[in-house]
Design goal:
This protein has 229 residues and is mostly helical. The chain has helices at residues 2-9, 13-53, 59-71, 75-85, 95-121, 124-132, 137-167, 179-190, 193-227. It has a single domain (20-227), classed as Orthogonal Bundle (MetI-like fold). Helix 2 packs parallel to helix 9 (193-227), helix 5 (95-121) crosses helix 7 and helix 7 runs antiparallel to helix 9. It is flat, with a radius of gyration of 22 Å. Mean pLDDT is 88; it is low at 1-8.
Length: 229
């Protein structure tokens, strides 16, 4: 009896080999939606941070409301609103687009604060000196302020990317066959819980560890370039 229990506790590698193609397919979808959402969030975050920094009337207040709403509500609720709520008023999107949109809007609120803090970390005297030399405000921002702001905000920027890629685990709620959906589906059908969860952990590590390592390397190099070894 004990031997049977011990055998049942072991991972069945043939099951893992059988399900591997499904996880690979789910990983491709997770990466596609995840990175599209990250790129979308960077674009939104940069635009919103500039609006807040330049104190553009009306838009600044709208940007702050956007940041507070999306930073203080779960991604799952946002996805439900986009996927299930908007069709009630005649606006519907595919699950993939809803995933990218939801992730981009959530990430944009975090990226906006990250870029804003980086911009504000740049010494104002550099801005004033560049203006006195005849540079336009746009030139000062894109050639002097933003490069330094990106350096200052790199740790938070990388942390946001990792956070957003992890948030893809809730996409299964809107019928996207991502990694979490695949794992739950296989567990429900075949009751191979241990094997499915091990594969889920491994594939998420394969997605997130390279981002973490590359982010750490970039952060150190930018730090050395700015302040010396």
């Amino acid at each position: 009896m004990l031997r049977r229990l011990e055998r049942s506790d072991r991972l069945n590698w043939s099951v893992i080999e059988k399900y591997l193609p499904l996880y690979e397919k789910a990983t491709v979808l997770t990466l596609k939606i995840g990175w599209l959402g990250v790129l979308f969030s960077v674009a939104i975050g940069l635009a919103v941070s500039l609006i807040v920094h330049y104190r553009i009337p009306v838009l600044r207040q709208t940007a702050k409301i956007y940041i507070e709403i999306f930073r203080n509500t779960p991604l799952l609720i946002q996805l439900f609103f986009i996927y299930f709520g908007l069709p009630k008023i005649g606006v519907s999107f595919s699950p993939e687009f809803c995933g990218v949109l939801g992730l981009g809007l959530l990430g944009g609120s975090y990226m906006a604060e990250t870029f804003r803090s980086g911009i504000e970390a740049v010494d104002k005297i550099q801005y004033e000196t560049a203006l006195s030399l005849g540079m336009s405000k746009a030139q000062v921002m894109f050639h002097i302020v933003l490069p330094q702001a990106i350096t200052y905000s790199t740790p938070a920027f990388v942390a946001n990317i990792i956070f957003l890629l992890k948030e893809t685990s809730v996409f299964s709620a809107i019928s996207l066959m991502d990694l979490m959906f695949t794992a739950k589906d296989l567990i429900g059908l075949y009751y191979k819980t241990a094997e499915c969860l091990v594969m889920l952990v491994v594939f998420y590590l394969l997605i997130l560890l390279p981002v973490s390592v590359i982010g750490s390397v970039v952060e150190r190099r930018l730090s050395y370039a700015s302040f010396g070894d």
